[in-house]
């Protein structure tokens, strides 16, 4: 009889088809189990985290292991921490992670094609490009607009800042200034720092009472900086801030940027998906005037983490800022009508990312995403209405999208304890922020798995935890 050890030893790196089938069956069985259990799993669980963290710090052994045992260890590890895939996760920006997209990623990774240049996988690059062209049209960008799929909006923002710097400032850029608000995602300031801009060249524009960029103040600061010999070059608007989901007055900012000759960038990492809906298009009006847009499909298109998009009005500007070469690439040539993504962003080696978007969009249909996002806007309205009716709570801002900040009428310490009590139930998980110097809880309805009954449960938990 073959021993277990002999079976493990017989597993080569190049797996036989029947072995792939068996391991795949075990993996799919685990996926089915995970998805089936999501509705009843806690929103957060740290009870076994210490033991597993110690176990998983061990280095790999020289001898082979057992696949079933290994993926069971993964299952246990994934169950510790915050359950970002579950319906009770209402913190930060939930998405859930479409299983159809995960299956697409499995297929893409097994195919293991290189898409940094179109020549090596032209049909797959065409597939990826079709999604980007559709997205550019969704945001109202002109024909010829394009971009690339990244690991997230942070990487996309870096490429956008580099392109703006290259296009508007040239090689000497130490006197360039960029304009943000305190609610602009910090990835933009981080990108500017990496791109070589001094921290003092990132100007923080005051906001209005509804936490949007004050366009008049932005105009004043741009004029003052230009008068002192600085070179304003980048104005950043936000289409859905992290703290409140607020959308800046994008149309007014477009006009200001055009008048002043600034590159206009829109961070739509969270809010971009709502462009599929009528209400979202109304609230994001003006985004079509952007020079660059960053968007995270792993937020408001419900995809697994690690999927961002950079769109540019003129992709040639991205190429001018990022393209390079080497003698070892002399065999590579351009393919007519297809981009070389390695020349549009910071990455050279990149996997095929298009299928994780292309397959779910074609499989489910765009209308399914639109309907899900409309539901999230409706549910956020329910949360705002119900919490506003409670005299013990402050709910100062009507949600633009699906984020609702609120707090107890009391001290910051009382609100911290309030958040702790809510999260201690392990039925829902919320996060917090600071607005106007005060501690606020925030609830974001975004996951496709979060439905009306889950929102009702969250409201019950909040009321019972006051």
From TrEMBL:
It holds the Pfam family Pyridoxal_deC. Its cofactor is pyridoxal 5'-phosphate. GO terms for cellular component: cytoplasm. Keywords: Aminotransferase, Decarboxylase, Lyase, Pyridoxal phosphate, Transferase. The keyword Lyase applies. GO terms for biological process: amino acid metabolic process; carboxylic acid metabolic process. GO terms for molecular function: aromatic-L-amino-acid decarboxylase activity; pyridoxal phosphate binding; transaminase activity. The modification N6-(pyridoxal phosphate)lysine is found at residue 299. It comes from the Bacteria. Belongs to the group II decarboxylase family. This is Aminotransferase class V-fold PLP-dependent enzyme.
